[in-house]
């Protein structure tokens, strides 16, 4: 019974950090709020791997994970961005609408993931932890970026979550059962580094997540271009044979 509960403890930790990040955001502490979202991403990546390593996957854990992700990577990053940039620099109506769209698209993304069988090795649409991580860390640079660029980035991330673009899921990078004991040490080390380098860590995470988001978009464009070339080649071949 205790073994079955271990992955859920990581998920609850993820949810707890998501709620705390919302509280920090409304107390004008965007830096701390974004760091909590980043740590929540780590816990979210570990809960499933720990469950598979211990062979204790369950529908309850899957649903709890989705509900936690809506808070930690949908609602929390949206509020962080709202407090950091949207609440003062754009009209209320626009700020409220764009802020609401992000977690709504995140919820739609998670609902689709839960009911539709995906492609092995891939996610369909940008995963909400990646989208939320990008949005939360982007909010840290709100003073350096134009607010309308941030609005567009929020809408773009929302679209990518509900799109049909394929993203690798890295689930093959599992966690050996013998290494489960080291997971708390990894989490503790990550928390220590995050608060030791509160500006550097978000920059690194933002760069990695942006590469991931753009990679999936580029891969999709390359596939579309390749298909069009093949179709054009098939259309031209019969014509050349007819003329010969």
Describe this structure in words.
Its EC number is 2.7.8.8. The chain has a two-stranded antiparallel ribbon. The chain has eight helices and two strands, in the order ααααβααβαα. α2 runs antiparallel to α3 and α2 packs antiparallel against α7. It has a single domain, classed as Four Helix Bundle (Hemerythrin (Met), subunit A). The chain has 244 residues and is mainly α.
User: What is the rounded Rg?
Assistant: 20 Å
Number of helices: 8
- CATH homologous superfamily descriptor: CDP-alcohol phosphotransferase transmembrane (TM) domain
Strand arrangement within the widest β-sheet reads: 1-2
Number of strands: 2
- From the helix content, strand content and strand pairing, which structural class follows? mainly alpha
Please give the largest β-sheet: 2 strands, antiparallel
Order of helices and strands: HHHHEHHEHH
Q: How far apart, in Å, are the first and last alpha carbons?
A: 75 Å
> What is the approximate shape?
globular
Quaternary structure type: single chain
Task: Work out the helicity level.
Answer: over 70%
Based on the coordinates given, report the CATH architecture: Up-down Bundle
| Strand residues, percent | under 5%
The CATH topology, please? Four Helix Bundle (Hemerythrin (Met), subunit A)
CATH class bucket:
Mainly Alpha
Number of domains: 1
Could you name the ranges where pLDDT drops below 50 across 5 or more consecutive residues?
none
Mean pLDDT equals 84
């Amino acid at each position: 019974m205790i073994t079955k509960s271990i992955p859920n403890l990581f998920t609850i930790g993820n949810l707890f950090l998501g709620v705390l990040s919302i509280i920090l955001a409304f107390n004008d502490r965007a830096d701390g709020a974004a760091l909590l979202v980043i740590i929540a991403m780590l816990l979210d990546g570990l809960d499933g791997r720990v469950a598979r390593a211990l062979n204790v996957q369950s529908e309850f854990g899957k649903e709890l994970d989705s509900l936690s992700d809506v808070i930690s990577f949908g609602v929390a990053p949206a509020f962080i961005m709202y407090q950091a940039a949207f609440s003062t620099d754009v009209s209320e109506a626009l700020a409220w609408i764009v802020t609401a769209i992000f977690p709504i698209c995140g919820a739609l993304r998670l609902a689709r993931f839960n009911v539709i069988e995906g492609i092995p090795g891939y996610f369909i649409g940008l995963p909400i932890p990646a989208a939320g991580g990008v949005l939360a860390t982007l909010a840290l640079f709100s003073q350096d970026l134009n607010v309308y660029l941030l609005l567009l980035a929020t809408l773009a991330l929302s679209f990518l979550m509900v799109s049909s673009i394929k993203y690798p899921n890295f689930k093959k990078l599992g966690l050996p059962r013998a290494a489960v004991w080291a997971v708390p040490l990894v989490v503790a080390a990550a928390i220590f580094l995050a608060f030791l380098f509160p500006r550097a860590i978000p920059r690194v995470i933002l760069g990695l997540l942006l590469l991931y988001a753009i990679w999936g978009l580029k891969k999709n464009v390359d596939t579309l271009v390749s298909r069009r070339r093949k179709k054009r080649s098939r259309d031209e071949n019969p014509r050349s044979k007819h003329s010969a």
